[in-house]
Amino acid sequence: MPGVHLDGMVAKIYKQIRELLSRTSPQKEAWRTVKLARHPKRPQTLDYIEKLFPRFNELKGDRRYGEDPAIVGGFAEFEHRTIMAIGHQKGKDTKDKIFRNFGMPNPEGYRKAVRLMRVAERYGLPIVTFIDTPGAYPGLEAEERGQGEAIAYCLGTMASLNVPTVAVLIGEGGSGGALALGLADRVLMLRNAFYSVISPEGCAAILWKDAKQATLAAEALKLTSEDLLRFRVIDEIIDEPRGGAHKHLDQVVRNLSGALSRHLQELEVLSTAELKKQRFAKYENMGREYINGLEES
Amino acid sequence: MEQRITVEITKRDKPELKKEEKQDRAPSGVSSNAISCTKCGTPIDLKDLEKNWFCCPQCDFHMPLSARKRIELLVDPGSFSEFGEKWTSTDPLNFFDLKSYQDRINDIRAETGVKEAMICGRATISDHPVVLCFMDFAFMGGSMGCVVGEKFVRAVDIAIEERRPLIVFTTSGGARMQEGILSLMQMAKTTCAVQRLETEKIPYISVLANPTTGGVLASFALQADVILAEPEALICFTGPRVIKQTIGKELPEGFGKAEFCLSHGQLDMIVSRKELRKVLTLYIDLLEGAVQCEYEEPEPAFRGLPKRGGKIIRGIREIKKVAFDAWRSLGRHGS
């Protein structure tokens, strides 16, 4: 075809692609993370526990009201030491998801977690938590049984523990319901997990008056692992294979295992007093650098 | 006078008040110096309202109250000295929705005169030195951001250093979205501070006002030794609208109100505003008395306790030991 300058056209198209990418990429990036973190095939707490900790045995019930399958936990073994593993479990197929209430705990879930943490503390066992929840369950009965108190109690327990704790954000970190298991000495985060004060949809509904603006909200909330590392809310990012953790679980487990081992070793040499001192300093310093006028008083 | 009250009462009543105010300025409009009760709609004269602790004289509805007004009503006159009044957020997320976070802050400050969602300071209540934190719903729904968290922690520091009880008034929609994950972390931050209070045996009382929800409720508000609430205050982790949406059912009458929480074992007491000073004084008195008992000291502080083998029991360890021995020896005599 004479007269058609293909070279010029190709260059033009490439330029357009580059422009489009540069214009939309940051927003898409945050939203892409949210979607990956919620991916139906994304590995869940029990998948990691199975791969990381041999001899895991689940313990059940809060000894007060009931058993909440949205949070699982029990003794396990990690590198020749006994540990306590606790985490949100969203469920795999429809039946399992309904059984586990999509990983949204009721108060008894948090109270079970507290019970397990106290048992671990009594035996001097380190605690590893896995965070993956849309949030605490917003239900009538949950409020009747004190959802707010259950979370406050779980937070208070994690703050006061005399044993080392490591939290791992593996998927969705939805607000207070996630943080309840996250007040740990070290917080690790998979690269494509997210952690936020409110879901992007909820934020968009309130501030944009339109839940469809969730993409914008996701960007504004700065909820990716890179953002959180920058704010020093997390201590380390665990790499995932291209396309997300579900593409190659073993690879993620290898990365996580190494980091977990390193952090536990660092924490296990500390005295109880030093451990708690560092924990309080870590959390009580959070946000301090983003306040003006602090040094004047 | 009217001008001041306009500033004090929170957003919800504002449009109404402004109208009244304008009429007030007209030379003839003296009689219109009133607002209507949020609950029963009865028109109340502002002076009567103030005399009645900002409660409706008809139905006793507790009208929203600013932090400044609460201070005025509660502490010994002139005893309040504030700290942290100049602390402001640097907008760490550079947050922007339909309006930038910085603009929102500036507008609310200009509109209400309130600088942050929490005001803290030292004061005395019935001559007892205390540290106080008052949340203010007029400032971004009393939401907890970095400044609120920091003020709470500083209040705890002072309470420990100066051995003063800590009293916190909460009214909050929860964490502050515009500070993202850092606002969520303020739940962890305040929790750690409360743990230090507990270790140091400093009395801590929280008073939950309408509404106390979300991250503030699920952290320091519910971690106090004694939890009081104002009548009919909404107290829940998730708001009724969201719960209704989730479960697709109507909620029972009075759901999430202080009375509901009291009957579900989540509070100690509902206290009317008029009685609050008296009740707080009582608890401070009782808890301070308790703190003075040093259980670990070997001092014979418990002269009234039973003696065993002619020996005075000293300290909690010894009490425990004696008790354990007694239990262990049960039934041995028969064998």
Textual characterization of the structure:
The complex is a heterodimer of chains A (297) and B (335). Chain A is built from twelve helices and nine strands. Chain A has 297 residues and is of the alpha/beta class. Chain A has a single domain (27-296), classed as 2-enoyl-CoA Hydratase, Chain A, domain 1. In chain A, strands 1, 2, 3, 4, 5, 6, 7 and 8 form an eight-stranded mixed β-sheet that branches. In chain A, α8 (200-208) crosses α9. Chain A is globular, with a radius of gyration of 21 Å. The N and C termini of chain A lie far apart (77 Å). The mean pLDDT of chain A is 93. With 335 residues, chain B is of the alpha/beta class. Chain B is 39% helix and 16% strand. Chain B contains twelve helices and eleven strands. Chain B has helices at 2-8, 14-25, 46-51, 67-74, 101-112, 146-161, 180-199, 214-217, 240-247, 258-263, 276-291, 315-329, and strands at 34-36, 43-45, 81-83, 88-89, 118-125, 128-135, 166-172, 204-213, 226-229, 235-236, 269-270. In chain B, strands 3, 5, 6, 7, 8, 9, 10 and 11 form an eight-stranded mixed β-sheet that branches. In chain B, strands 1-2 form a two-stranded antiparallel ribbon. The longest helix of chain B has 20 residues, at 180-199. Classes of the chains: A alpha/beta (297), B alpha/beta (335). At the A-B interface, α5, α6, α7, α8 and α9 of A face β4, α6, α7, α8 and β10 of B.
